[in-house]
Structure formats: structure tokens, C-alpha cells
Amino acid sequence: MVFVALVGLTLILVRGTIFRSLQRRWPAFLQCSQCCGMWVGLAAGASGVATLDRGRVWDAVLVGGATSVLAMATDAVLLKLLGDPSEG
Questions:
Q1: Total domains present in the chain
Q2: Residue 88: burial class (beta carbons within 10 Å; 0-12, 13-18, 19+)
């Protein structure tokens, strides 16, 4: 369930219009679901929000990687199903 929340947070940061000014300020970070997912997962793993009981460093790396892959896949599926909102 935590990974669903992390992917949701990632997609809100990347696709949400409320963060448009931040997306323009840091385009490399906030316009790529895979990149943003990695950092969201790293932060969640390092802070203990999402834990795999492997230690803080390993939790950060593993949760970051998992969130990155899941966010990229979810974003691709949603873009395929719903289309790109910026093209409309």
C-alpha cells in the first residue's frame, strides 16, 4: 500500500498542474516520472516511511528503485490509456 502512495505522490509531482512552477524550475527532476520516483522512494526509504527492514541505506536504495520502476510503468500505462494531458 505504501508503494501505491509513493507512486501516486510521484505522479502528482510530475503531472499535477499545481506544481507547474516547480516543474519549470527543475525540469530534469519534475518532468520525468522515473527520476522523480527514484528520489521520492529514496526519501521514503531513508526516512523510514517505507521500510524493508534491511537498514536505512538499503531501504532507501531498494524503495527508491522500486518506486522508480513502478512510477515509470504506471505513467506509461496511464499515458497510453488516457493520452498526454499536455497535448490536449
A1: 1
A2: exposed
Domain that holds residue 60: 2-83
The 10 Å Cβ neighbour count of residue 75 is 20
- Inform me whether the pLDDT recorded for 87 exceeds 80: no
Name the residue with cell 505522490.
Answer: 9
Output the CA torsion 61→67→76→16 (10° steps): -120
Of the two residues 23 and 67, the one the predictor is more confident about is 67
**Rounded to whole angstroms, how far apart are CA atoms 5 and 7?**
5
Q: So what's the pLDDT on residue 88?
A: 59
The secondary element (H helix, E strand) that includes residue 20 is helix 20-25
What does the chain come to in residues? 88
pLDDT tens-digit readout, 42-85 = 999 999 999 888 899 999 999 999 999 999 999 999 989 988 77
- Within a domain: 88: no
